[in-house]
Design a protein that fits this description.
Shape: elongated
Oligomer: single chain
Largest sheet: 5 strands, antiparallel
Strand content: 25-35%
Number of strands: 7
Number of domains: 1
Radius of gyration: 20 Å
Helix content: 25-40%
Length: 127
């Protein structure tokens, strides 16, 4: 009987701890892009960017240097926690679709933006 009580108490305490641990960071990657969600004081920040730096050919080539960069798109969602977003993916879908539709590399693929958003949501790893 004592073993059952100890096991139940342990299970309850682990379950209580797991539900009270706050999520502060989530990340998802595709072959070409990365999406990061971070808890900030105002709510949740979503950052979407390429995985690697690209060479910018329109800056002109110089024998002494080259210019590389990547585009970063950010959104701030006010009045919600990262915990809530991670539990309810439907709340996260529209902001991601908005980001994808605002980026030139997804131009002409508006019909696929929901599928891409689902892929990023399903790939989210949070801690």
């Amino acid at each position: 009987m004592q073993k059952i009580f100890v096991a139940a108490a342990l299970l309850f305490s682990v379950n209580t701890y797991a539900t009270t641990v706050e999520i502060t960071h989530c990340e998802s990657k595709s072959s070409s892009h990365k999406m990061v969600l971070d808890k900030v004081s105002e709510g949740v920040e979503i950052r979407f960017e390429e995985n690697t730096f690209d060479v910018y050919p329109d800056t002109g080539r110089s024998p002494s240097y080259k210019v590389t960069g990547k585009s970063v798109t950010q959104r701030l969602i006010h009045g919600i926690t990262l915990q809530e977003l991670s539990r309810n993916s439907s709340l996260l879908k529209e902001p991601i679709v908005s980001i994808l539709r605002s980026r030139p590399e997804f131009d002409g693929e508006a019909d696929m933006s929901y599928a891409y958003a689902n892929d990023f949501i399903q790939g989210l790893g949070c801690k």
